[in-house]
Amino acid sequence: MKNMLRKTIIMVLIVTILGGITACGGDSGNSTTGDDKAKSGDKGEETTISVYWGSLEDDMQQVWFDHFFEPFMEEHPGVNIDFQCLPDVQETLRVQLAAGGGPDIFMLDCFDIPDYVEAGTLLDLSNYENQYKWEDLIYDWGLDAATVEGKLYGVPHSSEATSMYCNLDLLKELGCDVPKTRAEFEDVCEKAATQGYIPIEYGYSGANEFQQWIYDHYLGNYAGRDNIKKLFTGELKFTDNEIKGAFELLKKDWDAGWINQGQSGAITNDEARTFFQNEQAVFCTEGTWLTLETISPGSLKFDWECTVWPSMKDGIPASGSAGIGAVMSVNANTKQADLCAELINYLYEDEQRLADAIAAGYPTLCRDVDENLYPADMADDIRKTLDSLGDILGQDTVGYAPWSSYPSDTNIYMMNNLDKVYYGDYTVEQFCEEAQKVLDKELAEGFVFVG
User: Fold this and answer.
1) pTM higher than 0.70 for the full model?
2) 163-319+407-444 in CATH: which number?
3) Which CATH superfamily is domain 4-159+325-393 in?
């Protein structure tokens, strides 16, 4: 049974708000179009491309307009871009797309693509892949992540690494260095908790997809990349100690109060992040996207470092995971498919334009960018994070981000049920047994782990 709770919620929402939805470009949320930030070009017949994305600060939204949307509209008189950044974008999309509406272009997580393909809501972009020769420009693993049964249903938007952000000032106060081993990590957490700090900030209220960050850290640094590959190719099971032990350790740290004092289910990710920004928490669970695109340069007023999560088990190296931050997909009901594909290609095609945008706070896409193209006045926080991104992804131990590599139904089960372990509704053994049932079904259906 595929995520019935989520589908039930969606149907209830459809019944209650169907009357307020318009197909492909309806107006809602934080819109930046027309006189706001968009130049409409010549008078006469006008076309609007609606784009839905997750939450971005205003100055980060401006980067999209300055480097991509406004130049595109200048080259296409009469075209407007309606860019809406929504805190609940995934739930909004599920409801609107299920009702036959929704925006033209929107962000998706890789693990959601199969369900949307099955529902017939995504446009097959394979012809555009050939037209624009994306296979020569975009990393093949990025395109593979959005491919279902040989057809392309999205273009990867960003490459990123899972990581650990550390408040170096607080570590110094605690008399600790950045931890690389489990013993060092425990020492920091114990001292931080004793002195009234939150060792690890973490919140997922209303957005179970954020659960992926925490189990990526523990699985990747307890089981290790080789055992994760064995798990998803059928050589290991969730109930084997190599895998189950990661969740047992996570539960232990939760019970110790180290993970946001056991309150993660009651606070949002944005609320949890403020604990790190306000120097109440030592560690932040977010990845390199935090200081590349989510918050503005200079937002962190203390000395910080973005690095790998520490080893959780002797013999398993400290590491981060490679992932795709989001996929740009196109609504199957759009009336301007060619224009949507052209806009997506516009984000990728000009290396200098992309380098300038990254320097201003745009995410690193799944393509090569010559570092010599970055402007000399790039913000220190962005340059620092790009260096960290390169260091993490450059390690031969780099792992697999769940949202990009794990089998879809198994990953959805994990993110929707892990909190049952936190709060005692499931034992770790029960959680792993149920996860294995979902994985067995996906393996039997032909899932192939690409990694």
Assistant:
1) yes
2) 3.40.190.10
3) Periplasmic binding protein-like II (3.40.190.10)
